[in-house]
Amino acid sequence: MIRLAILLSGRGSNFAAIHDAISAGKLEAEIVAVISNRPDAGGIARSLELGYAAHVVDHKAFANRAAHEAEVLRLLRDANPDFVVLAGYMRLLSASFIEAYRNRITNIHPSLLPSFPGVDAQAQAIAHGVKVSGCTVHFVDEGLDAGPIIVQRAVPVLDGDDESSLSARILEQEHGAYVEALQKLSGRRYTIDGRRVLFS
Amino acid sequence: MIRLAILLSGRGSNFAAIHDAISAGKLEAEIVAVISNRPDAGGIARSLELGYAAHVVDHKAFANRAAHEAEVLRLLRDANPDFVVLAGYMRLLSASFIEAYRNRITNIHPSLLPSFPGVDAQAQAIAHGVKVSGCTVHFVDEGLDAGPIIVQRAVPVLDGDDESSLSARILEQEHGAYVEALQKLSGRRYTIDGRRVLFS
Q1: Interface predicted TM-score of the whole assembly (ipTM), two decimals
Q2: What domains, with CATH codes, occur in chain B?
Q3: Model-level pTM?
């Protein structure tokens, strides 16, 4: 049973997918904290309904990034998660935050990395004219969407697609991909060899 | 019925796949020339057996790249192809060659571009730790494996993979992907909008 802390900024559809997988007995995990940097995040309201320990750490209420992050880290220390699961968390993490949870922070990105890192990945994919895109669950390191890859899923890009239709198709796969990645991590039998995450 | 000129340097497994698709009535195309820069290319022996117009234009027999390319271009003018199909052709094309057949030269690359352009794409994919790779059929422009994309197919990368096993899995998809791309082009109903190749 792995302990997960969820960081989010919005409605947290990936958080909801992870909750559902745990409830359905498909994921051996426990959500030990849900933290949002936005008081109005739909994910916080949902996590309160579900009875999780939900925390708003409003970045606007802190003097600077370091002070905000110190409070998030304090909550994480109390919650003692095995993994910090970014689920639409719209804040950059400092190097010291990443170091504190080295190879224990997960993120999901709506492209097949290393293609299209950064913002507007789906629009980048459309503009580049790829015929296959997808999503990537990866560990977070100091690079931009650059850490070791845990799971990827591909989706077709259709001629009629725009950013919106492609985003919707990718999002459908994101939920399953994130649950699959956490399932694999929950087995705790993996090694990180260079950039490769290998399961045994 | 589109006219194809094949350029190759080796055994030409993609050439063989294209030939087979035409023979089986799956591709409305005619191979009007096969050109190799290597006299010992297996693809040349095969094309002679099959009765195609096969030409060796040995780059070592020419004073420089421009002279070699001029002879290839002369053969292409005689053959009058709609598309110049690179099938394991290990020579760079000059800007003037590309301009002469703008958006009519096709290539296949063993990765999901724009990830892993250049040599050793499969080894790059293994080292990067991606979980999905594949192949890309694209038009050739002046960039490195950078032209507009016609078809892509994805394959899984498995934990036990090395460059060799991944290359074999991708190659299986290359043959179908190249035939599919030429089928789509044979319909002649496509537009190139920025980088996007759109079929109607």
Answers
A1: 0.95
A2: 1-101 (3.40.50.170), 108-200 (3.40.50.170)
A3: 0.95
